Amino acid sequence: MQESVPSQSDVQSTFAATLIDEWIRSGLRDVVVCPGSRSTPLAVACAERDELRLHVRLDERGAAFFAIGRALVSATPVAIVVTSGTAAAELHAAVCEADAANVPLLVLTADRPPELHGVGAPQTIDQRALYGSAVRLFEDPGVARWAVSSSWRALANRLWRRAVGEGTPPGPVHLNVAFVEPLLGDARALPAARPEEPWRTNIASSEETPRFSVAKGRVLAVVGAGVTPSTILACRELQWAVLGDATAQGALAHFDPLLRHDGFATSHRPDLIVRMGGLPASKILQERMREWDTTIVAFDGGGPVADPDGLVQTSYPGLPRADAASLRGDEAYVNDWSRASRRVDELLNSATTDDDALDEPGVARTVVEVSGDQQVAMVIGSSMPVRDVEWWSSARRSPTYANRGVNGIDGVVSTVLGVCAGARGVGLVGDLTMLHDVSALVDGLGEAGGSCVLVVSDNGGGGIFSFLPQASAMDHDSFERLFGTPRRHDLEAIAAAFGHDATTVSTKGALRVAIEKGLATTGVTVVVAKVPTREENVRVHEALNELVQRNIGD
User: Which H or E run includes 54?
Assistant: First the structure.
């Protein structure tokens, strides 16, 4: 007996179930779902699969940054499901971050059918190519049709491959799918699974040794976001001095204050600079690379190489191989850098005790120390935290993440929670960053559970602006109104109002105890670190740089 043609509701349910099934076969494990009616077929299809970790969050903007956190940890695409209208628009900031940072996301937006567009239907906007060139692939298949069900798995497979980096760097992809009412249906037997097909991403190690020789010269590797600890280790085994951004694990610490010393920068001029991944935040490093006027090459195996000054002269595919004899550098040069880095660490350690009042570099150093001791993931906020970790903390010993694609403060708390969900971790942000994404505290870690300690450096406003010309060029009141933007909220009380543990600390020792206690507790703990004013913070940085200048020889 011939099977009856399914109802449109059943077709939609089968379509959604097929997409999810194909993505699970590819490796999907995390799905972030925001409540909404039009996205019902997708939400139900996700909820019915035990293979998936479902994260239900109210705010679409924060949910998308939470998805970024999950994708950073897993290095695997994470799906986010939202309904139509402004819900889809709310994802745009996170899509831009994922694009610039090469974070794989499956952005799934539900839509009204064509007949409901342009006629005043509620919750309806033009969602076609909503994110423009920020996505690796956009698909808009329209209302699901049973007659083309054999193409559904190919659609899912196409989106997955572009998200993980086939033909382009990894990044977000967008599926905009229209659903008609009634939205609830029963999934029929799914179309047959596609056979496994071998494929590769463009982010792969090169099997060919680059056709140049280091000749045991002085090699400086400058690495950033996208470069893994194993790649940094390979560079170190090649006797390259490795300078990394705040997320770099195992790179040399304190290069920014060292390079501010003219004598040190002159005597440590490299013969070759190797660039991989994103750029560190240090402007002085960029200035020295321009001044040195030495050969600069790049490897693309850590993702696109950031080169805003156009300094890279030659690019090579893949990654440097630790066993490539022709790439071995000068061991004495690396040892000189290592000794200088350790010397700065000793100076900073001798300058403070556990009972000393906190300052912002001290907060960063303590958070990095505890995350390394506890071997938990760390997420660093933009503006001052990412710079203080890069310049003043010891070398990172645990996985470290930051939203360094477009460097915004929006969504950072959500990213912290995404990284920590189901595990243990710590985040370091400023007070405005916390307030900007305070709605993330509504859902906390969600059903995934875990332990998250959010350390907030509370300096009463936007600290980074005090380092910029605006601070001295404008009168105090105008500067505070437009840039400092202090908000007189009690951050501890805010966190407690959302039902989370919260405490305020003012010394290094108390901060360490609070973080360790929070990591031993289930749920979210907010630790407010009281630090000096933003003006005083500028003087603290100047004093630390002077300390290094006085005690580091050429």
Answer: strand 53-56
Q: Is the CB of residue 193 less than 8 Å from the CB of residue 152?
A: no
Kindly report whether the global pTM for this prediction surpasses the value 0.70: yes
Cα–Cα distance between 256 and 308 in angstroms, integer? Answer: 19
What residue ranges in 281-332 does DSSP mark as E strands?
Answer: 295-299, 314-316
Alpha helices in 168-301 (DSSP H): 229-237, 255-259, 262-267, 283-292
Contacts for 333 with CB less than 8 Å, ≥ 6 apart? 218, 219, 239, 241, 268, 270
Residues with Cβ within 8 Å of residue 240, at least 6 apart in sequence: 219, 220, 221, 274, 329, 334
The HSE-up count of residue 172 (CA atoms within 13 Å, CB side) is 31
Collect all residues with Cβ–Cβ distance below 8 Å to 51 and sequence separation of at least 6. 24, 29
Phi, psi (5° rounding) for residue 270? -80, 160
Tokens of 325: 């004899």
Distances (CA, A) of 147 to 8, 11, 150, 361: 12, 10, 8, 62
How many CB atoms are located within 10 Å of the residue 291 CB?
Answer: 12
Phi, psi of 457 (to 5 degrees): -80, 110
Q: Which domains does the chain have, with CATH numbers?
A: 8-178 (3.40.50.970), 219-339 (3.40.50.1220), 353-551 (3.40.50.970)
Q: Does residue 1 surpass a pLDDT of 50? A: no
Is residue 25 within 8 Å of 190, Cβ to Cβ?
no
> What DSSP state is assigned to residue 249?
B
Q: Are the beta carbons of 46 and 39 closer than 8 angstroms? A: no
Task: Assess whether the previous peptide bond of 257 is cis (omega < 30° from 0).
Answer: no
Segment 443-460 mean pLDDT: 96
User: Token digits for 205?
Assistant: 């190690």
Cα 485 from Cα 193, distance rounded (Å): 55
Q: DSSP secondary-structure letter at 461?
A: S
**pLDDT at position 303, please?**
85
Mean pLDDT, to the nearest integer, of 142-153?
95
Please report the pLDDT score of residue 472 as a whole number: 84
